Amino acid sequence: MARINLRPWREERRAERQKQFVTAIVGVVILSGGLGFLWHQNVVGQVEYQNSRNSYLTSEMAKLDKQIAEIRELRKRRDELLSRMRVIQDLQGKRPVIVRVFDEVVRTLPDGVHYQSMVQKGATLQIKGIAEANSRIATLMRNLESSDWFDSPVLTSVKALQSDPSQSSFELSVKQVTPDDGEKEGGKR
C-alpha cells in the first residue's frame, strides 16, 4: 500500500480557514465600527438639529414675549387715552349745563337774598346765604322748586344774625337736575 501523508494539506487548509475567519472577523469589526460611526454621526446630527430648533423657538418666544409686552403697554395707553377722552367729552358736554345752572341760580335769587357760598357735592348744591327776612328765604325755596334745573330744596338751618337781628343767615341744599333727566324721572317740566 502506498503511504500518503494528508497532514500538510489539512494544516494548510486549517491555516487557510483560520485566515479566512480572521479576515471575516476583521471585516465584521470594521463594518460594525463603520455602522456605529454612521449611527453616532446621525444621532449627533439629530441632536444638533433639535438644539437649533429649540434655540429658534426660544428666540421666537422671546420676540413674542416682547411683542406681548408692547401690546399690553399699547392697550394700557389706549385705555388711558380713552378715559381721558371720556373725561374731556363729559366736560365738553357739561359745559353748557354748568353755565345754565349758574344762570338759573341767579334767576331764582329773589331781592333781599345774598349768597355767601355754594358747594357742589355730586348732584347736590349746598347754599349758604343771608336774607333780609324769612319770607325771602321761602320765596327762594319756591323759586328753586319751580325751576327746571333744581329739585327738592331742603332748608337746613335759619339763624338771626347777631350783628343785625332783622337779617337771617340760612343754609339749604338742593338737588341739581337737567331738564331731560327730570322728564325721564317723572319730574317737572
Question: Would you mind describing this structure in some detail?
Answer:
- This protein has 189 residues and is of the alpha+beta class.
- It has a domain at 90-184: General secretion pathway protein M, EpsM (Gyrase A, domain 2, 2-Layer Sandwich).
- Helices cover 64% and strands 20% of the residues.
- It is built from three helices and four strands.
- The protein has a four-stranded antiparallel sheet, covered by helices on one side.
- Strand 1 and strand 2 form a beta hairpin.
- It starts with 6 loop residues before the first helix and ends in a 5-residue tail after the last helix.
- 9% of the residues are buried.
Total number of β-strand segments?
Answer: 4
- Helix tally equals 3
Shape: rod-shaped
Widest β-sheet, arrangement of strands: 1-2-4-3
CATH class type of the domain at 90-184: Alpha Beta
Rg result: 52 Å
Instruction: State which percent range the strand residues make up.
Output: 15-25%
End-to-end separation: 155 Å
Pattern of helices and strands: HEEHEEH
**Can you tell me the CATH topology of the domain at 90-184?**
Gyrase A, domain 2
Helical fraction equals 55-70%
Nearest-integer average pLDDT: 87
